[in-house]
Amino acid sequence: MRKQVHADNPEFASRSRELHVITLPRHVYGTSCAAVNLIYAGRDRYRQLIGLLHNCTARSAMNEHRLKESRSGRNYLFYCSLVVCSALALAQNAPKDCKPTTPLGKQSRGELKHRKPGPGTPEVTTIPEVLIWRQPAGLSSRVLRESNKAIDDRENKVYVLEGNLWRVGLEENDCDLHLELSDPGKRKSRDRVIVEIPQEYASTRDGVLALLPEQERLRITNARPNSTGNYRPVNLRSPLRIRVTGYAFHDAYHYSARWQTSKPGRCDFSPEQLHQRGKNHGTCNVGTIWELHPVWKVERLR
Questions:
Q1: What Cα–Cα distance (Å) separates residue 36 from each residue in 52, 153, 179?
Q2: How far apart are CA 163 and CA 99, in angstroms?
């Protein structure tokens, strides 16, 4: 009986990871190019890669029996297997494979960002409400801005928030999954709130990615950092309405009390806007330094 090979076979997956460098003869060059291109399809395309292996053996000049019997046919099958296995070994999942450029112990307010899920019943809030939350007192103090303890009563509370998801990105400094939400039903140009899912909440992150259209999902899972370690975020063509649960968090790292007429910044904020929205805090649509962070629960709404 013919043995069927699948990508979810543990032995096959283990062997594929052991392959690193191969030398290909010219007659499988085209197949190798196709396999390498499929690297960018990510792990959820394993079966397509296996299909490529089967197609690789379908040469018009030989049938399956002759491939097995002839020396050149066996070599051809061998090299085709190496091509596909190498592609499998190289396939990446950026959110899982991401390595923070800033160690946890040196991340701004890192202990608060990586809290475990909070107890009790979450408090319901809205995007418009979060956008007008007052800033914590004493932000002029660097010690306060870098504190790993709550600097406002809100940071001790868990909130539930609904919104339209417009943007998903992977933060290189801490590998958090960075989401931008606007008020449900509003245009993409409306003010947004950032919510972030740390790397330790892997199932939540996987759930968010599973909600995305395939093209956008693959752009995130197959992302590779540039020379400075940054990942390119993905802007959704159509928003997803979601409900998130997490702690309130003031990302004081982005707070700026200074405003220079000669250096208004990329968003050209007024002094009042800069005070409320912060500096380099997501896109220019983000309307507050307040976030929900960490977020550990995400639900799709219809």
A1: 11, 52, 30
A2: 29
Same domain, 65 and 128: no
pLDDT digits (tens, 9 = 90+) for 73-90: 555 555 555 554 444 434
Question: Does residue 141 lie within any of the structural domains?
Answer: yes
Q: Are residues 85 and 102 in the same domain?
A: no
pLDDT band at 185 (very low <50, low <70, confident <90, very high): confident
3-state secondary structure of 73: helix
Beta-ladder partners of 124:
160
Token pair 């475990």: residue? 116
Q: Are residues 263 and 131 in the same domain?
A: yes
pTM of the model: 0.70
Residues 6+ positions from 106 with CB-CB distance below 8 Å: none
Point out the domain boundary residue: 59, 76, 91: 91
| pLDDT tens-digit map of 282-291 | 899 999 999 9
Q: Answer yes or no: do 180 and 47 share one domain.
A: no
Q: Clarify whether residues 102 and 243 are in a common domain.
A: yes
Give the residue numbers spanning the domain of 212.
Answer: 96-300
Q: What is the pLDDT of residues 115-158, one digit of tens each?
A: 999 988 999 999 999 999 999 999 999 999 999 999 999 999 99
Give the span between the Cα atoms of 34 and 52, in whole angstroms: 8
Q: Are the C-beta atoms of 263 and 157 separated by less than 8 Å?
A: no
| 82 phi-psi bin (left φ>0, alpha ψ -120 to 50, beta other) | alpha
CA nearest neighbour of 161 among 133, 124, 129: 124
Is residue 7 scored above 70 in pLDDT? no
